[in-house]
Every structure is written in structure tokens, then in C-alpha cells.
Amino acid sequence: MLSFIARRVLAALGTLVLSSVLVFLAVQALPGDVATQVLGKDATPDAVAALREKLKLDQPAWERYADWIGGALHGDFGLSLVSGKAVGGEVGMYLGNSALIALVTVLFAVTGSIVLGILAGLYRDRWPDHLISTVSLVGMSVPEFVVATVLVLCFSVALPWFPAVVLYGPEATVGQLMPAVWLPALALAVVMAAYIVRMARTSVIDVMASEYVTTARLKGLSSWRVVTRHALPSALLPTLHVIALNVAWLAGGVAVVENVFNYPGIGKLMLSSVQNRDLPVIQAIALISAVVYVVCNLAADLGAMALNPKLRTRGRTR
Amino acid sequence: MPDTHHPGRRSVLAAAAAGSASLGASWLLTGCTGASAAPALPEGAKAGTPDRGGTLRIARPPASEAETLDPASALSAYEYLGALYNRLVRIGANGELAPDLAESWEPDAKARTWTFRLRKGVTFHDGRELTSADAAYTLRHILDKATASPQAAVLAPLIDPAKLRTPDAHTLVVPLKTPNAEFPSLLTHYNCYVVPDGSARGIGRTGIGTGPFKLESFAPAGPGRITAFTDHWAGRPVLDAIDFYSVADMSARSNALLAGQVDLLSQTNLDFATARVVAASDRATIARVENAQWYVLPMLTTEKPFTDVRVRQAMKLAYDPEHVVKVALQGAGTPGWDNPVPPSDPAHVAAHPEHDPEQARHLLKKAGHEGLTVDLYTSSYDPVFTPMALAYQDSAKRAGIRVRVKTASADSYYTQIWMKKPLMATYWYTGRPVDQLFTQVFRGGSSYNETAWSDKAFDALLDRARQETDDERRRELYGEAQTFVVEKGGAMTPMFADRLVGISRKVRGYAEHGFEFDYLGIGLKGA
User: Fold this and answer.
1) Per-residue pLDDT averaged across A163-185, rounded?
2) Is there a contact between B223 and A262 if contact means CB atoms under 8 Å apart?
3) CB-based burial, A35-72: b 16+ in 10 Å, e otherwise
4) Model pLDDT, residue A42
5) Distance CA B150, CA B142 (A)
6) pTM value?
7) Range list of H helices, B34-114
8) Which residues neighbour B247 within 8 Å (Cβ) at sequence distance 6 or greater?
9) Among B127, B195, B214, B264, which is least packed by CB within 10 angstroms?
10) In this structure, are residues B282 and B505 in contact, taking their beta carbons and an 8 Å threshold?
11) Where is the Solute-binding protein family domain (chain B) (predicted)?
């Protein structure tokens, strides 16, 4: 069991290193560099050369990478090439705002979709199942910015209940952001929930068809007890992984939705940093996204172990 | 976007996503309202007088995290400048020079020394009185290498900062290195707003000027607020305050307008689909800035086959600008006929050859490029680029020219494609005085010369024109310069387009032309 965890953690660290290298290479491959992007077409060649030197862009890529990794290990992510502020603090501020959306989204998506998934599974091939399955299929196929645009048109433009965009900067307080959190969270939840609904439905169907549920039924237990005590824990197990992966997607993939709502979150920071070729910021965000991804996966695996007697015993006998 | 094209000016990746998102929006609204035909776009902003007071909310695209309020900088937060500062001279609605902080100006007999007489009783926001020392300091600040002002390249060949003279508190004397009868027009540029003497270090944050509004708060790439300056020399503005919000994504900006969160979208030329949605809304409408966008297909005259003037002529004769206006602008603009001086400019002359595909074919044959195939680069940077490229492609087919339209990434378009690929789509704001236009974009060696065209005869013609003190004769010379560019230059100008600006239906007194925006008169109904 311990060695299992140790191996998973090691693999996670390896993933982090690998992703930092890949991101670094990808950024190198972008056309144009920060000097040309920041100074723009007005810039004289002298000014571009001076800025390149000041930002140490004239050094070879591997040296810059080594510098950066060295700093990151000490918690120092360097200074933004564009604003000149410390990357750590800046990313933290935006990340906090995104976490607000993520929290609401996860609450919406996980509770809502598990309930719907179970309903669909229990009413297999009857009308509630058809309705839920069709809607979740649509949710899965429609890109999130379309969902977001529809929500804006309905609940900001036609019915002025929620703000269409956030007009505050990244320093906004939770109170200022709160009214603007619901629509982006709903848009993300719709897309995210679709997968969880499908997964929950499938596993409920599997479990309900299994022998021990039949046994429980034959013992004369009520349907409610069969479902809550016997079927659900097993049904939730495979769903955990899907939830974990979706949370990870949430951390890295909210860029488009945040852009539609002008929400001052990590996705918007990432977009503008890529446009400006703000290397230290992009790398810090990528590293944080990788950490979230890895931690979510790790949590899913360990959670699965906790819930699954088979995995637990296998760990112990080793 | 002012005359710069730097990518930070508009969120570009965002614009790419916005294109598709706003299409979705228009489709949806049409579906919702059951309207089968798209509504026609309104011709102009609503007339009528605004009520006194109120706060106007403007959504603007952030320049970059490195934004500053220093007007001379390449990274200035453009929308604040005209509200916080004044220039010595500005451009009037008729295209002629108009007084701003200078009440009058006159050259000596040879147009070699210019004397500006400054308005009296003008105060800065901090209460200090404006003097000629401030005006002289502003010019020195622009020319200072440390400022890295884009306008320095234009002024440095003319002005020696050490020779500026201020004989009294309200007179500025500018001796020029070479005679120039159009010199004051160069000071209408938005880098030339007057800042207080000795303010270089702080001006980027304080924003202290003589303009109708004073700064209350400003965050680079973030929100900001300016309030009415009651001691403004031309009277107080109609509004009490303006709130600026920075919204990078174009569809997010129009959503904010549709939802009633903002009243005006600045530096946003709406695409036609979005413009229709906005015009159909109860809260918002469209104002047009006539011929505000100058669209260009520059041919790099240093790259084959455009090194041959016959090929350039053929490329121009081959297509019909009327067709491009009809297709790419849905009629909302004026054919350019390859003359970069807009029809609304007093210097404009209407001399251009007719559309003639046969002659184009003939010229190509003579140049040895029969059945020419060219790559034309565009991007989603501006909603009109690709429709313009496709309309050109379609029109030039008749002359046997095969155009391959290639779409490049929008966020590096102005660093990787512009002035690098032999043929691409681009645009500028109109509203440049004619001498500035020719000097910046067509003179050999100028940093904005996007066709890399270098013709000694043309440059000599410009020199003659700017030294000519007889107004009538000078106008003739600038007319010749236009014919020159149409016949020999590398830039195709298919059209001048109206800019479609989204405003709230409450906005009154909206007036904008070129780089001029009326901050004094704009207001709200029912404020």
C-alpha cells in the first residue's frame, strides 16, 4: 500500500517535470517573442534589442529554463516580463478568483449530475432516462462558449438577472465577484456534468444488474435501501475518476468561458500572457495546472483504493 | 486602435473566438425574435442634446499590462488621452487644422520657423497655469530617446530640442532644420498631448493635463475613472464622470453593451453580424464613423513579382473596388481606387484609372507574369480582412490572376506577417493630415512604410510640397503625390470603411472623427 502511494507520487513528480519542459518548448515555438509583442509595430529595432537583452532573451533557451526551474524550486517564479510584478503573487490573485468559479461549478456539477445519473440508471430506457441522456449528450457536444453565450443572452440580455461581463479587475473582492460567478459556473457545469451523468448512469446500471444487488433484493430489503446502501457506493467508484479528471479540466480549461465573461481568472491571465509571450507567467500557470491535474488524479486513485476492498487487499498482501 | 497596430491593443486570440461566438449570438437572437430578415443598420447616432451630469461607462480593449498615461509613449492608454490632455492644434470636423491650446500659429516667409501663440488662462488639473515652457517641454519629452516615442521618428528630423525658444510665457518658437509648411499638422498626432514641464517621471501615473476631465483612478489594463474638470478653459464637460473598463474580448464587450453594463465600446469596429444584433437591441444601437477605417492590401515592392511596377499596376487594374465595397462592407463604405487620401480629406483628388482587367492581363503578359499566382495573407485580427481578401480574389480572377488567400494567426499578425509577407491585408485609422500620411507611410525609409516603396522622385515631390508656402500650389503638389502613389506605389487601397461603434441608446452628442473624440459634448439622456 505504501509503496503503491510512493510510486504514484514519484510518477506525479515526473509528470510535472516533463510538462514544464514541454510547455517551455511550446512557448519557444510561438512566433514572435515578448520584446516584439510588447513593444509592437511602433518599436525601433534598437528598442527591441535593448528589451531582449534586459529580459535575457538573448540567452540560450536551456539556460533560461534552468534559471526558471531553479527559482521555482525555491517558490520564486520570477517577475512578469510585461507588468514587472512578481509572478507568484499575480498568479495567486487570479487563481483565487478562478477557485471561486471552480468551487461553485463542482458543487453544481457533481451533486446535480450524480443525482441525474442515478435517476437515469434506475429508470433505464424509460422517459426520465431518455430525457436525461439526450440532454447530457447535447451538453457534451456543445462547446462551452456557446453554452456561455446562450446563458448570457437569456439571463443577462433578455432577463437582466446577472451581469454579462465582470467589469472589475483581478483585485475584486469575493463580494464584488459573487453576482458574476453563477453564469460561468453554470456554463462550465453543463459541459462538465454531461460526462459525469453518463458515467454514473452506466455504473448504476451495471451495479443494479449484479448478483449482490439481486441477493439484497431477495433478502427482502426495500428498493431505497438496496440503492443507497448497496448499489451507490459501488456505482460511485468509477464515477470518481471522471469527476477528478473534470476538476482538472476545470483548472486548466476555463480560459474560453472566463474570456466570454471577462472574468479576472487564471484562464484569462493565461490567454493574455500567451498573447504577450509573458514566459514566466505562462510557465507558472502551466506548472500549477499540472500540479492540479496530478493531485486530482492521485486523489482519485487513493479514493478508489479507499472505496474498493479489492484494491485495498491487493495492496496489503504485497 | 490608433494608428499603431501593436497586438496588445486589441485582444487578438479573443477576437478569434469572438467571431464565432457573436455569429452564434446573432443566429440565436434571430431565432428568439423570429425576425427573418436582418434589420438594416442605422445611419448615424441619435441626435438631440444630452442632459447635464451623469457617468458614461466605456468598455475599451486594454493595450497591455504595461499601459501608461504618458501620451508620448507607444503604450499609452489611448482612450484617456483626449479626456485628460490637450494638444497645441487638433483636426477639425472639416479635416482642416483647428486651434486647441494654441490660439494661432504662423510660419516665417520660408516656413522655416513657426511661432505658436498659446491660449491664456489655461490651468492644469493641479492648478498650475499653462505656459510656453510646458509646450516646449512636451516637444523635448517626445524627442527624448528615453521616452521611445513613436512620434520621435517623425519630429526628430525637423526639430533640434536645444533650439526651441519661449520669448514669453505664451509664445513658443520652433525653428525647423528644413522648411515645412505643414509642420503644425504633425502636432495633431495623439502622441503630442501637452504635459506639464518636468513631468516625465510621474506623468504615466498622474495624468495631469489641461483636458476636460481629471484623473481619479487608473490601473493598467484595468478599470479607471475620470471626473469633470470644472476649471477647464472651454467650460466644463456635460458629463460628471467617465468610468473606463477594460474588456479584452470583443464579444464580451458587446455583451456588456447589450446587458446595459456599459454605454460605449471604444476602439471596436463591430463585425456586421454583431452590429445587427446590437442595432436590434432595445438598449443599444450603432453609430457610424464615416470612412474611419482605411483598408490596404500592401504589396512589398522589394519582393518579386511586385518589384516590377507593371505587376503592381496590373494588380490594381485587375480588381473592382466597387465590388469589394459591396461584398466585404455590405456597402458601408466608399471605394478607395488605390488613393490613400480619403475622399473626406480636403486634399483629396479624384484621379484614378478605370477598372480594366484586359489592360491588367496585357501588363502582366508584358512583364512575363501571365497567369500570375499570388498568396494573400489575412487573419481574424479585424473582421473585414478576410471578406476583403476574398472579394479581391474573386474580382481579380477576371484578369487571370490567381489569388490564394492564407489565414495567419491573429496574435502575431503584426509582428510576423505585416511588412514581412509580400501581400497581406491591413488597415489604419484615417484622420492623418496629408503630409503626415505620405511621410509616414509612403516616403522611402520611413518606419511605417509598409510597402518598402522608395522612389526618389516621389520623395522630392513631398519635399517640394512641404516647403511650398502658397496654399493653392501646395494643394496641387499633394494632388500630384496622390496620382504618383496610385500609378507607381505598392499599396492597393480598395476602400474606406465606416467604423461601426456600439453605443447605448441613452448616449447623446457622440462625435468622433479620425483620432478626435468629443469628450466635452458627449452626454446621456436622462442622466
Assistant:
1) 88
2) no
3) bbbbbbbbbbeeebeebbeebebeeeeeebbeebeeeb
4) 60
5) 8
6) 0.83
7) 78-84
8) A165, A167, A262, B59, B60, B61, B253, B256, B262
9) B127
10) yes
11) 96-447
Which residue among B25, B57, B64 places its CB closest to the CB of A276? B64
Test A149 with B252 for CB contact under 8 angstroms. no
Residues, chain B: 527
Residue B359 Cα, gap to closest chain A Cα (Å): 37
Write out the three cell numbers for B410: 491573429
Give the whole-angstrom CA distance, residue B231 versus residue A91. 42
Distance of residue B172 Cα from the nearest chain A Cα, in angstroms: 28
Instruction: Give every CB contact of residue B457 below 8 A, 6+ residues apart in sequence.
Output: B484
Q: Which of B21, B74, B447 sits opposite A145 (nearest CB)?
A: B21
**Chain A residue closest in CA terms to B62:** A272
Answer whether A169 sits within 8 Å of B414, measured CB to CB: no
CA angle A308, A311, A315 (to 5 degrees): 140
Closest residue of B to A272, CA-based? B11
Q: At what angle do helices A279-307 and A309-317 cross, to 10 degrees?
A: 90
Q: Across residues B122-135, what is the average pLDDT? A: 96
Inter-chain CB proximity B8 and A276 less than 8 Å: yes
CB B287 within 8 A of CB B321: no
Minimal Cβ distance to B261: which of A153, A164, A268:
A164
Distance from CA of B9 to the nearest CA of A (A): 9
Q: Please say whether the beta carbons of B130 and B171 come within 8 A.
A: no
3-state secondary structure (DSSP) of residue B203: helix
Interface of A with B in 250-269 (CB under 8 A): 256, 259-262, 268
pLDDT at A48 over 60: yes
Phi, psi (deg, nearest 5) at residue A94:
-65, -40
Concatenating the DSSP letter of every residue in B334-359 gives EE-TT--S-TTSTT-----PPP-HHH
Is there a contact between B66 and A260 if contact means CB atoms under 8 Å apart?
no
Over residues A101-139, the pLDDT tens digits come to 888 988 888 888 888 888 888 888 899 899 998 888 888
| A211 part of contact set with chain B, CB < 8 Å | no
A208 phi and psi angles, rounded to 5 deg = -65, -25
Based on DSSP, count helices (H) and strands (E) in chain B, helices before strands: 15, 21
Binned at pLDDT 50, 70 and 90, residue A308 comes out as low
Would an 8 Å CB–CB cutoff place A176 in contact with chain B?
no
ipTM: 0.78
| Inter-residue long-range contacts of B170-173, CB under 8 Å, 24+ positions, other chains counted | B170/B117, B170/B118, B170/B119, B170/B120, B170/B131, B170/B132, B171/B115, B171/B116, B171/B117, B171/B118, B171/B132, B172/B88, B172/B102, B172/B115, B172/B116, B172/B118, B172/B132, B172/B135, B172/B136, B173/B113, B173/B114, B173/B115, B173/B116
Q: Which residues of B touch A260 (CB under 8 A)?
A: 17, 21, 249, 251-252, 255
Between CA A279 and CA A59 the distance in angstroms is 14
Can you tell me whether residue B90 is helix, strand or coil?
A: strand
Angle between helices A266-276 and B12-33 (to 10 degrees): 130
Of A150, A153, A165, A170, nearest to B57 (Cα)?
A: A165
Find cell 492608454 and name the residue: B77
**How far is the C-alpha of A259 from the C-alpha of A271, rounded, in Å?**
8
Report the C-alpha gap between A294 and A99 in whole angstroms. 17
Taking an 8 Å cut-off on Cβ atoms, the answer to whether B148 and A44 are in contact is: yes
Asked if A260 lies within 8 A of B409 by C-beta distance, the reply is no
